[in-house]
Amino acid sequence: MNVTRQKGPTMPAHTEQHRKVIADAVVSMDGYTSTGPEDDMSWAMEHITSEQSEVMYEGIWRGVSTAVMGRVNWEGFTSVWPGLTSDPSSSARTRDLGNWLATVDKVVISTTLQQSDLDKTEWTNARVSRDLETEVRSLKAAPGRDILVLNSASVIQALLKADLIDELCMTVLPTTLGRGVRLLPEGLSSKWRLSHAITIPATGAVALSYRRP
After folding, report:
1. Spatial CA neighbour of 183 closest among 202, 201, 203, 210
2. What is the pLDDT of residues 140-153, one digit of tens each?
């Protein structure tokens, strides 16, 4: 496995008393996380499905007990992942991730979805929340492992503005989109410290993880 990691300053070990909110997203070189509402993520699939990326993502999700996402990602994930999980040609890591996604505690931030919409899918253990900030503050105060925001730009932007993200993970792909949804909100001023950086030679991507100072 040829994954190069550059470590930043050593951080204190995570404890149950402080659940980190980790935001993870794939972005283009020009800062977009999707081309828009109908984005099929084809521009990122080579990276997402690579063996080296699977190893990196496994290092994140195995430490998480709650996943947070927006409506668009919920609908996209639930339409794709059950098939990937049950496909015998999928890698063991892909199937493990699919099973984790299907069963982990999930909070879907939406003003339009109803609980009945979530209950129609193959995934279990999911609920709708209307109030993002209140929900995340409550999750941080509850016992459990870390909280992962899954590639939902609108959710990540709102949590950045509310200063509720402890770790920001961005995987920069060697492509430009020219348009779409930007990951980082306009007008946000903040400082971060590099936790670690990983290069993924197979796809030319660079994964950057930043933490609050």
Report:
1. 210
2. 999 999 999 999 99
